[in-house]
Write a structure and sequence with these properties.
- Helices cover 49% and strands 19% of the residues.
- It is built from five helices and seven strands.
- A four-stranded mixed sheet has the order 1-2-3-4, with helices on both faces.
- The N and C termini lie far apart (56 Å).
- 29% of the residues are buried.
- The N terminus is likely disordered.
């Protein structure tokens, strides 16, 4: 296993608070990386761990081949691994973590798919002149869709329903 060092943007204005937040995120990434590395060893999977800090969250990625079993159908296993990893971080830091775990680039690929789904839903709402309900999605997926739709002027989105059937609905903006 190899590990890359986290990259961080300098804290705005060198503020001590920004620095301590970055330090905590780097610590989260280190804890998560160690946890995932131990898990990979137990499961006898080969993968490299890459850690980074983006904005206000630590990102840990497992890079390698034949990692599909760690992703599972529609990312369900990955979501479970992410929650277990967050729990490991909380156990050691005492602070709730927003850490994101990616395996084999799944989340990056899924993000591109979701942006395309959002754009298609916008076009469908425009052509039908009525709201369009998307398939149920997990919180990560819904956030990506909401972000993509918020960048488009004449539409808005909202989530409706209860987990695990919670979904995004695309609405045309009222004039």
């Amino acid at each position: 296993m190899t590990e890359t060092q986290p990259t961080t943007a300098p804290a705005a204005g060198g503020a001590a608070e920004g620095s301590s937040n970055t330090d905590l995120l780097v610590q989260e990434g280190d804890i998560a990386g160690d946890y995932i590395e131990r898990l990979l060893d137990i499961l006898d999977f080969d993968g490299d761990i890459d850690m980074d800090v983006e904005g206000d969250r630590a990102i840990v990625a497992v890079i390698g081949d034949e990692l599909d079993a760690l992703i599972g159908p529609r990312g369900t296993t990955l979501d479970a691994l992410q929650e277990l990893t967050r729990l490991a971080v909380v156990q050691q830091t005492g602070v709730r973590s927003r850490l994101m775990l990616d395996v084999g680039g799944y989340r990056a690929k899924r993000r591109q798919e979701l942006v395309a789904i959002a754009k298609n839903a916008v076009e469908q709402a425009r052509s039908l002149g009525e709201p369009v309900k998307l398939s149920p999605m997990n919180p990560f997926e819904r956030k990506v869709v909401h972000d993509a739709i918020s960048a488009i002027d004449d539409v808005r989105s909202e989530s409706e329903g209860e987990e695990p059937e919670r979904r995004v609905v695309v609405h045309l903006q009222s004039a």
